[in-house]
Amino acid sequence: MKRLTKLFLVLCIIGLGTAEASFPVKKGNNTEAVTEDSTAPKVDVEEMDAFTISDQEVLDRAEDIIDSTEKTSKFSEEDWILLALWFFLGGFAAHRWYAGRPVGWNILFILTLGGCGIWALIDLVKILQRDFM
């Protein structure tokens, strides 16, 4: 058995030493200068103006992004209530009853002690991510 293991290790080492890339690799220095390609398509500046947006549109979009992040970054009152219920009455699935989860799952949560704590931790993470309700 030891011989077979040693033989296997030797073959693996030899195999790794002879492995090659699955794509062609050019060796050597690549010192070619970059030049302008005359076959490249030319871009008309007037065509580009059709795709640009005004400064006011940029400001409006930035304000929308800022407003949406301010709304999502703060905990709502329901999130705080869920967190308090999880902390103080989590063993009785109070946070799950408050969120309106199915009765059968809530009873199973109580009987299994929050899925041996794993289910309870998952609920905590979902509450903190504001994804519980």
Question: What is the helix content?
Answer: 55-70%
Low-confidence stretches: none
Mean pLDDT: 77
How do the helices and strands follow one another from N- to C-terminus?
A: HHHHHHHH
Q: Beta fraction of the residues?
A: under 5%
Computed CA radius of gyration, to the nearest angstrom: 31 Å
Report the major sheet: none
Describe the structure.
The protein has helices at about 1-15, 45-50, 55-75, 75-90, 95-100, 105-110, 115, 120-130. With about 130 residues, the protein is mainly alpha-helical. Helix 4 (about 75-90) packs antiparallel against helix 8 (about 120-130). The chain has a domain at about 80-130.
SSE layout:
Elements: H1 2-17, H2 45-49, H3 55-73, H4 77-89, H5 94-99, H6 103-111, H7 113-116, H8 118-128
Descriptors:
8 helices, 133 residues, flat, mainly alpha, single chain
Short description:
The chain is an all-alpha fold and 133 residues long. It contains eight helices and no strands.
